[in-house]
Write a structure and sequence with these properties.
- This protein is of the alpha/beta class.
- The protein is built from 13 helices and 9 strands.
- The strands form 2 sheets. It has a 7-stranded mixed beta sheet with strand order 3-2-6-7-1-8-9.
- Strand 8 and strand 9 (280-282) form a beta hairpin.
Length: 294
Amino acid sequence: MAVYDTLNDRQKEAVFSTEGPLLVLAGAGSGKTRVLTHRIAYLIEEKDVNPWNIMAITFTNKAAGEMRERVDKLVGFGSESIWVSTFHSSCVRILRRFIENLGYSTSFSIYDADDQKTLMKQILKKMDLDSKQFRDRAMLSAISGAKNELMSPEEFRLNAEGDWRAKKIAEIYQTYQDELKKNNALDFDDLIFKTVDLFQTNADVLEYYQERFRYIMVDEYQDTNTAQFRLIELLAGKYKNLCVVGDDDQSIYKFRGANISNILDFESAFPGAKVIKLEQNYRSTSISWMQPMR
């Protein structure tokens, strides 16, 4: 247990609280990455959890690489079995194995920004739409926003109601998705959007990954959007052993369309959750002290 002596009391509490949902509120410099890596080591060394059953997710390749390096040093043997990855890389791995269930080939392409722009220009030209009124960049942004909210083209159209422009964007969105599928391609937002779709429509695939990832940790939770939240909610649905680490500084919530309710409503989404602030411990049925931030 000597390795844990370097942690302060709040960090130790977060590391040793392994069962059930846990929200760790941690600002910059409070040792949140240390908590996550030591928690992984504790699960393996003290709780006899198979490294294969642990998943750690963050946002950037750099952050994932740094966490991977720290986990490898701390855990040693067996650490290669721990799934340390970004949201999107995790979804690519899942889709490469099971996307045929959604009617795509596992050799699908991933369109970058230039590919998307080229495709969108072709669609707008084919639909004979005014390029000033329907700019390719604006259309791609609208579609990205919809996917991050898990809104399909049909749902987009229904929400448009009597708005002619919104209905036309829904039509563009549908055509864009049809063309992507025809080309056996996904865009960046599709990676999470389609993985959620896969899990929601294929119970056996979801169960496979729920059994695989019995302990899930998410860094930078304040940056998650609706699609990312739903992905994690599905994966953690069976065992509920979910630990998320987030910064409760409201000013950072604008990142990538982050949904502030993911952190504010964590205890509602995951009943029985424990909340720890690295400077202080909170146990409550609602994060009332955060409500003025809305």
